[in-house]
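My main concern about presentation is that the manuscript never shows what a single data entry looks like. For the editor and my fellow referees, an illustration may be useful. For illustration, here is how one protein appears when written out as sequence plus C-alpha coordinates:

***
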Amino acid sequence: MGDVERGTQRNPDALILDGNFEENYSLGEWILIILMYLFVIVTFPITIWMCIEVVMQYQRVVIFRLGHIRKGGSKGPGVYFILPRLDRAVPVDMRTISFDIAPQEILTKDSVTIMVDGVVYYRVYNAILSVANVLYMDLATRLLAQTTLRNALGTKNLAQILSDREEIAQNMQVTLDKATGTWGIKVERVEIKDVKLPAQLHRAMAAEAEATREAKAKVIAAEGEMNASRALQKAAAIISENPAALQLRYLQTLTTIAAEKNSTIIFPLPLDILHGFTSPKH
Protein backbone atom coordinates (compact mmCIF):
# COMPACT_ATOMS: atom_id res chain seq x y z
CA MET A 1 0.00 0.00 0.00
CA GLY A 2 2.90 2.34 0.78
CA ASP A 3 4.32 1.95 -2.75
CA VAL A 4 0.95 2.81 -4.23
CA GLU A 5 0.67 5.94 -2.08
CA ARG A 6 4.20 7.10 -2.94
CA GLY A 7 3.52 6.48 -6.60
CA THR A 8 0.37 8.56 -6.35
CA GLN A 9 2.26 11.48 -4.83
CA ARG A 10 4.93 11.38 -7.55
CA ASN A 11 2.31 11.32 -10.31
CA PRO A 12 -0.09 14.29 -10.03
CA ASP A 13 -2.38 12.80 -12.67
CA ALA A 14 -3.09 9.62 -10.63
CA LEU A 15 -6.13 9.10 -8.46
CA ILE A 16 -5.97 10.06 -4.80
CA LEU A 17 -6.25 6.84 -2.81
CA ASP A 18 -6.62 8.42 0.64
CA GLY A 19 -6.31 11.74 2.46
CA ASN A 20 -2.54 11.49 3.09
CA PHE A 21 -0.89 13.94 0.72
CA GLU A 22 1.15 17.11 0.93
CA GLU A 23 0.53 20.59 -0.43
CA ASN A 24 3.22 21.38 -2.98
CA TYR A 25 3.04 25.05 -3.95
CA SER A 26 5.35 26.77 -6.38
CA LEU A 27 7.23 29.93 -5.46
CA GLY A 28 4.71 32.15 -7.20
CA GLU A 29 1.83 30.45 -5.37
CA TRP A 30 3.55 30.97 -2.02
CA ILE A 31 3.94 34.68 -2.82
CA LEU A 32 0.21 34.97 -3.59
CA ILE A 33 -0.71 33.19 -0.36
CA ILE A 34 1.54 35.44 1.76
CA LEU A 35 0.19 38.58 0.08
CA MET A 36 -3.39 37.46 0.71
CA TYR A 37 -2.64 36.79 4.39
CA LEU A 38 -1.16 40.30 4.66
CA PHE A 39 -4.20 41.76 2.92
CA VAL A 40 -6.56 40.01 5.35
CA ILE A 41 -4.55 41.24 8.36
CA VAL A 42 -4.36 44.85 7.10
CA THR A 43 -8.05 45.07 6.27
CA PHE A 44 -9.19 43.33 9.47
CA PRO A 45 -12.02 43.19 10.58
CA ILE A 46 -13.70 43.93 7.24
CA THR A 47 -12.34 40.94 5.32
CA ILE A 48 -12.71 38.55 8.25
CA TRP A 49 -16.38 38.12 7.36
CA MET A 50 -15.29 36.95 3.90
CA CYS A 51 -12.91 34.37 5.39
CA ILE A 52 -15.23 32.56 7.79
CA GLU A 53 -17.71 29.93 6.64
CA VAL A 54 -19.93 27.46 8.50
CA VAL A 55 -20.53 23.81 7.61
CA MET A 56 -23.44 21.72 8.88
CA GLN A 57 -23.18 18.60 11.05
CA TYR A 58 -24.09 16.30 8.15
CA GLN A 59 -21.61 17.95 5.75
CA ARG A 60 -17.89 18.07 5.13
CA VAL A 61 -16.03 20.68 3.09
CA VAL A 62 -13.07 20.02 0.79
CA ILE A 63 -10.98 23.18 0.39
CA PHE A 64 -8.87 23.82 -2.71
CA ARG A 65 -6.17 26.47 -2.40
CA LEU A 66 -4.91 27.58 -5.81
CA GLY A 67 -6.17 24.25 -7.16
CA HIS A 68 -4.44 22.13 -4.51
CA ILE A 69 -6.40 20.22 -1.89
CA ARG A 70 -5.44 21.61 1.49
CA LYS A 71 -3.55 19.38 3.88
CA GLY A 72 -5.52 18.00 6.81
CA GLY A 73 -8.43 16.51 4.90
CA SER A 74 -11.98 17.75 4.84
CA LYS A 75 -13.30 20.34 7.28
CA GLY A 76 -16.40 20.33 9.42
CA PRO A 77 -18.72 20.45 11.07
CA GLY A 78 -18.48 23.99 12.45
CA VAL A 79 -16.52 27.06 11.37
CA TYR A 80 -13.59 27.00 8.95
CA PHE A 81 -11.28 29.68 7.52
CA ILE A 82 -10.60 30.40 3.83
CA LEU A 83 -8.60 33.01 1.93
CA PRO A 84 -10.74 35.09 -0.43
CA ARG A 85 -10.11 34.51 -4.14
CA LEU A 86 -7.50 31.81 -3.44
CA ASP A 87 -9.59 29.14 -1.74
CA ARG A 88 -12.57 27.29 -3.12
CA ALA A 89 -14.76 25.23 -0.79
CA VAL A 90 -16.71 22.23 -2.09
CA PRO A 91 -19.39 20.96 0.35
CA VAL A 92 -20.13 17.22 0.42
CA ASP A 93 -23.26 15.68 1.94
CA MET A 94 -22.34 12.70 4.16
CA ARG A 95 -25.89 11.43 4.70
CA THR A 96 -27.23 8.20 3.21
CA ILE A 97 -28.67 8.79 -0.27
CA SER A 98 -31.12 6.53 -2.05
CA PHE A 99 -32.10 6.36 -5.70
CA ASP A 100 -34.23 4.13 -7.89
CA ILE A 101 -32.62 2.07 -10.61
CA ALA A 102 -34.62 2.78 -13.77
CA PRO A 103 -36.50 -0.27 -15.13
CA GLN A 104 -34.09 -2.32 -17.20
CA GLU A 105 -35.08 -4.69 -20.00
CA ILE A 106 -33.06 -7.83 -19.36
CA LEU A 107 -32.71 -11.05 -21.34
CA THR A 108 -32.29 -13.91 -18.88
CA LYS A 109 -30.10 -16.95 -19.41
CA ASP A 110 -33.14 -19.00 -20.53
CA SER A 111 -34.08 -16.33 -23.15
CA VAL A 112 -36.94 -14.64 -21.29
CA THR A 113 -37.26 -10.86 -21.59
CA ILE A 114 -38.19 -9.20 -18.29
CA MET A 115 -38.29 -5.69 -16.83
CA VAL A 116 -36.48 -5.26 -13.50
CA ASP A 117 -36.00 -2.21 -11.29
CA GLY A 118 -34.38 -1.69 -7.90
CA VAL A 119 -33.18 0.76 -5.28
CA VAL A 120 -29.68 1.56 -4.02
CA TYR A 121 -28.63 3.14 -0.71
CA TYR A 122 -25.17 4.69 -0.47
CA ARG A 123 -23.25 7.33 1.44
CA VAL A 124 -19.98 9.22 1.10
CA TYR A 125 -17.37 8.02 3.61
CA ASN A 126 -14.43 10.07 2.24
CA ALA A 127 -15.24 13.58 1.06
CA ILE A 128 -11.87 14.14 -0.60
CA LEU A 129 -12.09 11.02 -2.77
CA SER A 130 -15.67 11.86 -3.82
CA VAL A 131 -14.55 15.29 -5.05
CA ALA A 132 -11.12 14.55 -6.47
CA ASN A 133 -11.63 11.13 -8.11
CA VAL A 134 -15.05 11.28 -9.79
CA LEU A 135 -17.13 13.84 -11.65
CA TYR A 136 -20.84 13.81 -10.75
CA MET A 137 -20.59 10.95 -8.27
CA ASP A 138 -24.36 10.51 -8.06
CA LEU A 139 -24.73 10.11 -11.82
CA ALA A 140 -21.74 7.79 -11.98
CA THR A 141 -23.17 5.59 -9.21
CA ARG A 142 -26.56 5.44 -10.94
CA LEU A 143 -25.08 4.38 -14.27
CA LEU A 144 -22.88 1.79 -12.58
CA ALA A 145 -25.89 0.38 -10.70
CA GLN A 146 -27.84 -0.01 -13.95
CA THR A 147 -24.95 -1.82 -15.63
CA THR A 148 -24.39 -4.05 -12.61
CA LEU A 149 -28.09 -4.98 -12.50
CA ARG A 150 -28.08 -6.05 -16.16
CA ASN A 151 -24.87 -8.03 -15.78
CA ALA A 152 -26.02 -9.76 -12.58
CA LEU A 153 -29.43 -10.84 -13.91
CA GLY A 154 -28.28 -11.70 -17.41
CA THR A 155 -26.46 -14.78 -16.09
CA LYS A 156 -29.48 -16.10 -14.17
CA ASN A 157 -32.50 -18.16 -15.18
CA LEU A 158 -35.97 -16.75 -14.61
CA ALA A 159 -36.62 -19.20 -11.77
CA GLN A 160 -33.39 -18.13 -10.06
CA ILE A 161 -34.28 -14.44 -10.38
CA LEU A 162 -37.72 -14.98 -8.85
CA SER A 163 -36.49 -17.16 -5.97
CA ASP A 164 -33.04 -15.72 -5.18
CA ARG A 165 -33.69 -11.98 -5.10
CA GLU A 166 -31.99 -11.44 -1.77
CA GLU A 167 -28.83 -13.28 -2.79
CA ILE A 168 -28.66 -11.40 -6.10
CA ALA A 169 -29.11 -8.07 -4.29
CA GLN A 170 -26.28 -8.92 -1.86
CA ASN A 171 -23.94 -9.83 -4.73
CA MET A 172 -24.80 -6.54 -6.44
CA GLN A 173 -24.08 -4.64 -3.23
CA VAL A 174 -20.63 -6.23 -2.95
CA THR A 175 -19.83 -5.51 -6.61
CA LEU A 176 -20.97 -1.89 -6.43
CA ASP A 177 -19.17 -1.27 -3.15
CA LYS A 178 -15.91 -2.59 -4.58
CA ALA A 179 -16.23 -0.47 -7.73
CA THR A 180 -17.07 2.76 -5.89
CA GLY A 181 -14.37 2.39 -3.21
CA THR A 182 -11.95 4.74 -4.99
CA TRP A 183 -14.77 7.31 -5.28
CA GLY A 184 -15.13 7.55 -1.52
CA ILE A 185 -18.59 5.96 -1.68
CA LYS A 186 -19.93 3.13 0.50
CA VAL A 187 -22.86 1.18 -0.98
CA GLU A 188 -24.88 0.14 2.05
CA ARG A 189 -27.80 -1.76 0.53
CA VAL A 190 -29.27 -2.87 -2.79
CA GLU A 191 -32.82 -4.13 -3.23
CA ILE A 192 -34.60 -5.55 -6.30
CA LYS A 193 -38.05 -3.99 -6.22
CA ASP A 194 -40.08 -5.56 -9.00
CA VAL A 195 -39.74 -8.16 -11.76
CA LYS A 196 -42.27 -7.65 -14.56
CA LEU A 197 -42.96 -10.63 -16.80
CA PRO A 198 -44.54 -10.64 -20.29
CA ALA A 199 -48.33 -11.15 -20.40
CA GLN A 200 -48.03 -14.49 -22.23
CA LEU A 201 -45.62 -15.77 -19.61
CA HIS A 202 -48.01 -14.62 -16.88
CA ARG A 203 -50.80 -16.73 -18.41
CA ALA A 204 -48.51 -19.75 -18.86
CA MET A 205 -47.29 -19.56 -15.24
CA ALA A 206 -50.87 -19.16 -13.98
CA ALA A 207 -51.98 -22.24 -15.96
CA GLU A 208 -49.02 -24.22 -14.66
CA ALA A 209 -49.76 -23.19 -11.08
CA GLU A 210 -53.45 -24.11 -11.47
CA ALA A 211 -52.55 -27.52 -12.93
CA THR A 212 -50.15 -28.12 -10.04
CA ARG A 213 -52.83 -27.24 -7.50
CA GLU A 214 -55.36 -29.53 -9.19
CA ALA A 215 -52.86 -32.39 -9.22
CA LYS A 216 -52.15 -31.91 -5.51
CA ALA A 217 -55.90 -31.79 -4.77
CA LYS A 218 -56.44 -35.07 -6.62
CA VAL A 219 -53.58 -36.70 -4.74
CA ILE A 220 -54.97 -35.51 -1.41
CA ALA A 221 -58.49 -36.76 -2.34
CA ALA A 222 -57.11 -40.15 -3.37
CA GLU A 223 -55.18 -40.44 -0.11
CA GLY A 224 -58.37 -39.58 1.80
CA GLU A 225 -60.34 -42.25 -0.06
CA MET A 226 -57.61 -44.79 0.65
CA ASN A 227 -57.57 -43.95 4.35
CA ALA A 228 -61.38 -44.10 4.50
CA SER A 229 -61.37 -47.50 2.79
CA ARG A 230 -58.86 -48.81 5.28
CA ALA A 231 -60.96 -47.51 8.17
CA LEU A 232 -64.11 -49.15 6.76
CA GLN A 233 -62.21 -52.38 6.28
CA LYS A 234 -61.13 -52.36 9.93
CA ALA A 235 -64.69 -51.51 11.05
CA ALA A 236 -66.14 -54.37 8.99
CA ALA A 237 -63.62 -56.77 10.50
CA ILE A 238 -64.58 -55.69 14.03
CA ILE A 239 -68.31 -55.94 13.32
CA SER A 240 -67.94 -59.37 11.73
CA GLU A 241 -66.28 -60.66 14.90
CA ASN A 242 -69.28 -59.65 17.09
CA PRO A 243 -72.84 -59.80 15.66
CA ALA A 244 -74.12 -57.59 18.49
CA ALA A 245 -71.96 -54.74 17.17
CA LEU A 246 -73.92 -54.69 13.93
CA GLN A 247 -77.21 -54.54 15.84
CA LEU A 248 -75.93 -51.67 18.02
CA ARG A 249 -74.82 -49.81 14.89
CA TYR A 250 -78.31 -50.30 13.48
CA LEU A 251 -79.90 -48.78 16.61
CA GLN A 252 -77.41 -45.88 16.57
CA THR A 253 -78.34 -45.06 12.99
CA LEU A 254 -82.01 -44.98 13.95
CA THR A 255 -81.21 -42.56 16.80
CA THR A 256 -79.28 -40.25 14.46
CA ILE A 257 -82.10 -40.15 11.90
CA ALA A 258 -84.67 -39.44 14.61
CA ALA A 259 -82.61 -36.51 15.93
CA GLU A 260 -82.13 -34.92 12.51
CA LYS A 261 -85.71 -35.23 11.24
CA ASN A 262 -88.66 -33.91 13.18
CA SER A 263 -91.00 -36.67 12.07
CA THR A 264 -91.97 -40.23 12.88
CA ILE A 265 -90.15 -42.98 11.01
CA ILE A 266 -91.14 -46.62 11.34
CA PHE A 267 -88.54 -49.29 10.68
CA PRO A 268 -89.30 -53.01 10.75
CA LEU A 269 -87.45 -54.54 13.63
CA PRO A 270 -86.46 -58.12 12.86
CA LEU A 271 -86.66 -60.51 15.76
CA ASP A 272 -83.13 -61.68 15.08
CA ILE A 273 -81.85 -58.34 16.35
CA LEU A 274 -82.79 -59.37 19.89
CA HIS A 275 -80.85 -62.59 19.81
CA GLY A 276 -77.64 -60.72 20.52
CA PHE A 277 -79.02 -59.39 23.80
CA THR A 278 -80.45 -62.65 25.06
CA SER A 279 -78.37 -65.36 26.60
CA PRO A 280 -78.92 -68.89 25.22
CA LYS A 281 -81.09 -71.19 27.33
CA HIS A 282 -79.75 -74.58 28.34
